[in-house]
Design goal:
This protein is 38% helix and 11% strand. With 143 residues, it is α+β, with helices and mostly antiparallel strands.
Length: 143
Amino acid sequence: LTLALNSTVRDRVSILYQIMKQQDNTNDIDSSNSKGVVSEKMIIQMIDHLQKTCQLVPDSQIIESNVSYPVQEYKIGTAKELYFKARNGDDGGKKSKEGTVPYKDEEHKMVEEDEFYALLRTRWICAWGECYVKKKRGASDET
């Protein structure tokens, strides 16, 4: 609780990342994990924990279901679905790379701390409301 109340978002992300690094036993690249990366699986698990503890905003978790007739239906996305939307930008069949976090290491699918921080700030995950940014003056308001 102290971490959530008395620290910056960057500190929270860093501590969560350090915890994942210690727990990640699937690092086949370097068993000592000196490169400072964690597996995609660990990131998805952490997103799941954040989701289950209500640390993700509700807007980001609502995704389109496969049922679109007679009306489009929506569902709560799983951690895995939210993760891949943040990576690929797939938003209801409309591919958009805006606001996504592409892989730095496509072959091994390992995630660095900066990537993890960027993933949590995407509109598909939006931990602690960090995806909401103040608009610059003069920008049009869309509601």
